Amino acid sequence: MPRPAAPSERCSVPRFRVTLPLLTAVASTALALVSAPVASASDPATRPAQPISYTAEAGGVHQLTNPGQPWPGVDDWSCRPTAEHPRPVILLHGTGANGVNNWGTVAPSLLNEGYCVFSPTYGATPLFPGIGGALRMSDHVAEMTAYLDGVLAATGAEQADMVGHSQGVTVGMHLSKVTRPGRIGTVVSLGGFAGGTAEAGLPGLASLSPMVDLEGMAAESSRGLPDGPLPMPFPAMLDINEHSPTGRLLFAGGTPFDPGTRYTLIASAYDGLVPPAMSFPEGDHPGVTTHVLQDTCAQNGADHAALYADPQTLDLMLNALDPEAAVTPRCWPTTPILGALGAVPPRGKA
Asked: Hey, what's the signal peptide range on this chain (predicted)?
């Protein structure tokens, strides 16, 4: 089945000037793809295992050294999910990131487990195609709803799973509850917002909450905030609360959760942008599991940036996507911003 045009055209990484060496490389790559066996492109079980770097910079390094290219094995529109992993996984990056630099640890981890993996860049502008999450939340939700439809049509799957980081979690939760309920099996949140408490403040500004009533300001201003373009960078940050136009849709009925979707919310006590009090809503919610990394691993120092490179986080994510193959999460020293220290043991070996 051909790759859907609309989702792929909207989700891109930075463009670079075309040179003769680049044209030669592209031609060689295209020839290799054409001559490769069909099974290697469509069956995730035939892919060779990839090394995994537990550093927050792994995706950015790949983007710099392979300009314009997705992570190897990602965005394979001929991939067909297996009986073991019947749902493709869509990765939704955070504010200002993209489908490559946010997922240098998560993408190969999922590929090695045999998933079909898709990693779009959503909400980018033509001027800065590699900087995602730069529009309003309604724009991001509409774009990713169409993208989800394209993934399901291309793979033949009934449902997809979503792994989001930061703002990407809110986008995924909108799809699971508002625009495509029933089509998302699992949402995994890495440092995302799911309600929290008023005392925690607002996403991205949690450290100011002891001094400023950010929740009160949001309640006053966001209710009357019109949807549409705003003359400011990353205006979707104004939408990630219960009071904005899109926020009211997500929190209708008092919860951002769809009863037919499973949610795993992962947070770190060292996250200064979206701490656990903001990641988790108050009370118990059916189908929702929460994890604070330091509750079971005191030496984990992952912050908002290192969450997606942390071995414990990766194991919790994979456990959520495939509970029958769950392992004890690795407790490994992880530093803020950079990621894990030393040689990390393989999954299930620590």
From this structure: 1-41
